[in-house]
Amino acid sequence: MRKRTGFTLIELMVVVGIIALLATILMPNLMQAQVSAQRVACLSNMHNAGLAIWIYTTANNDMYPACYNYINGNSSGGGYYHWTAAIDTTDYTGDPTAGSYPHTSDEFVCPSHVSHGWAPADFTTWSAATNTGRIINPPAGQAAQSRVLDDRQCARLSYTPNEILMPSKKFSSAHDADAPPGTGSLCYVNRIEVEDIQRTILFAEFGNSPNGIYGSTVNGGDTYRSFCPTNGVQDNGGVFDGTSYVLGDVITQLNYADAMTSINAVLADKTAAPAENHIAYVEPNMHKTGSNYAFADGHAAAFGLADTLDPAGYMWGVKVYSCADKPVIGPHP
User: Fold this and answer.
1) What domain range includes position 80?
2) How far apart are CA 318 and CA 242, in angstroms?
3) Vertex 35, ends 30 and 40: CA angle to 5°?
4) Which single residue of 24, 62, 175, 196 has CA 20 to 30 Å from 147?
5) Is residue 75 part of a domain?
6) How far is CA 296 from CA 33, 84, 163, 322, in A?
């Protein structure tokens, strides 16, 4: 009798079928494990960024940094000095036209962010041929402004600060009162004055679409404004932008319906972004059922956007501390 040395076709098909069945059973679990790992890594990044800001405040009379300043003090023409540079100044002392700032910045990037973090508004693109420029493989859909320089900002960024704590205090004192668009109504924020600090959002996650951060600058034209902060409030029933705030304006909570209207509007048409609430900068569901948020006391946690805007547990602040008259954030009308 001839000795059998291999599988029959039927046996092979049975084995393949079993493997396919096991893959079908295990694949969702493996994908869920990957999603969970990315969410945890993002939480760690946000927690570390929050602690870095806390350390910055202890070394700077308890004051938060601005979200960004103009490097030359009077216009965007000289580029932007960003909070990510403020907490790590030693990396941002080179020539802004030579691509000399760090090429990577994984500590500021969420692994789930499709773009792997937005680049600065002003950036030079790295060339392997000449070994010049800064940003390697710029995010899809994002182009640099026309200026040939690099903002003092991390190379890639997934996180945007809450404007009530870290405003766009962009002008130097010599230009702060200029109107428009001076920022004389804005001020730096002292950490000690923040009420309910453990429930006040410090950072949120940028959205996956660049549409939300599309806009223009006075000296740079149209760009993707990755240097800008977000917020969860409205000004006299309309868009709150600290740079146009007038002392005495009525500030109220943004509700979830209006937030989603703004987000959906910019997803459909990026040119709508300048007229929409700045909550459109953020991603409601970066991690499937919500996104991560860092809080002013240094911890980070995951929430749905609706949870952060719920009047019963509103997380975007008690007051607009970055406005000179510190308006209380009232309930949504």
Assistant:
1) 9-309
2) 16
3) 125
4) 175
5) yes
6) 29, 16, 12, 14
Residue with tokens 């910055």: 56
pLDDT tens digit sequence for 150-161: 999 999 999 999
What's the rounded Cα separation, in Å, for the pair 256 and 306? 6
- Specify the pLDDT at position 202: 98
> pLDDT (tens digit, 9 = 90+) per residue, 53-66?
999 999 999 999 99
| pLDDT band per the 50, 70, 90 thresholds, residue 27 | low
> What angle is formed at CA 286 by the lines to CA 51 and CA 39, rounded to 5 degrees?
55
Query: Of 56 and 98, which is predicted with more confidence?
Result: 56
Quickly count: other Cβ atoms within 10 Å of residue 146's Cβ.
11
* pLDDT bucket at 163, cuts 50 / 70 / 90: very high
> Are the CB atoms for 213 and 261 separated by under 8 Å?
no
Q: What is the 3-state secondary structure (H, E, C) of 257-281?
A: HHHHHHHHHHHHCHHHHHHCCHHHH
* pLDDT tens digit sequence for 137-147: 999 888 888 78
Q: Say which residues have a Cβ less than 8 Å from residue 248's Cβ, sequence separation at least 6.
A: 325
pLDDT at 303: 97
- Per-residue pLDDT reduced to its tens digit, 254-295: 999 999 999 999 999 999 999 999 999 999 999 988 999 999
Residue 318: strand, helix, or coil? coil
In a domain? residue 97: yes
Task: Give me the number of domains the chain comprises.
Answer: 1
Domain assignment present for 161: yes
- Distances in Å between the alpha carbon of 144 and those of 113, 135, 141, 171, 185? 19, 10, 10, 22, 30
**Residue 286 covered by a domain:** yes
